[in-house]
């Protein structure tokens, strides 16, 4: 027997914030691909700007319109990884000498940060933006506005402007340490017995 109705009420998936996430993902990837094939700095920068501005706008609209949903948060997290991967590929074409820091960043962001970002699903939270009610330190170091801004823009800035790959490598490794320590803190919360 097939169940055709969900067991719990599901908020609408089609809403303004999710539409912004979809559009910014399609546009950013749509610009990153020709940035890769044509080695275009202008297209790569525009792709990153579409990704970052769209990422700010989807979250802001979700909060202002009171349309925050768990599925929207997961959609945003997955879309961030898709945009980031394609934009990072454009960076590699433009700056092949930065292969090591970009590779380390992708491992950190696509795997470690993704697992950490999805950890909110264990608690009755709408998104990682509310993780402060679970662990203030993990929230502050990962999802506070300054932390979110620094996570990807810091490495992009360093890859574009650092005189050698070692500055962005050091930055990426520092961010990775924060992410691994944060994952450890979350893991301890998950195994702590209920009182």
UniProtKB/TrEMBL annotation:
Gene3D superfamilies for the chain: 1.20.120.1760
TM region positions: 100-125, 169-191
Source superkingdom: Bacteria
UniProt keyword list: Membrane, Transferase, Transmembrane, Transmembrane helix
Single annotated GO MF: phosphotransferase activity, for other substituted phosphate groups
One GO term (biological process): phospholipid biosynthetic process
Annotated InterPro entries: CDP-OH_P_trans, CDP-OH_PTrfase_TM_dom, CDP_ALCOHOL_P_TRANSF_CS
One protein family per Pfam: CDP-OH_P_transf
A GO-annotated cellular component: membrane
Family membership: Belongs to the CDP-alcohol phosphatidyltransferase class-I family.
Name of the featured protein: CDP-alcohol phosphatidyltransferase
Originating species: Virgisporangium aliadipatigenens
């Amino acid at each position: 027997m097939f169940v055709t109705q969900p067991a719990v009420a599901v908020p609408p998936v089609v809403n303004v914030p999710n539409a912004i996430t979809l559009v910014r993902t399609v546009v950013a990837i749509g610009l990153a691909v020709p940035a890769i094939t044509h080695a275009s700095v202008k297209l790569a920068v525009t792709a990153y700007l579409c990704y970052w501005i769209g990422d700010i706008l989807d979250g802001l609209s979700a909060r202002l319109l009171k349309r925050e949903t768990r599925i929207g948060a997961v959609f945003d997290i997955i879309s961030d990884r898709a945009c980031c991967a394609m934009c990072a590929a454009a960076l590699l074409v433009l700056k092949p000498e930065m292969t090591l820091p970009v590779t380390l960043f992708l491992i950190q962001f696509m795997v470690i940060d993704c697992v950490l970002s999805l950890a909110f699903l264990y608690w009755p939270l709408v998104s990682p933006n509310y993780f402060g009610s679970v662990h203030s330190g993990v929230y502050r170091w990962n999802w506070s506005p300054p932390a979110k801004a620094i996570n990807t823009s810091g490495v992009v800035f360093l890859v574009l402007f650092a005189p050698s790959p070692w500055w962005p490598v050091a930055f990426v490794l520092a961010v990775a340490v924060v992410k691994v320590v944060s994952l450890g803190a979350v893991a301890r919360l998950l195994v702590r017995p209920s009182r």
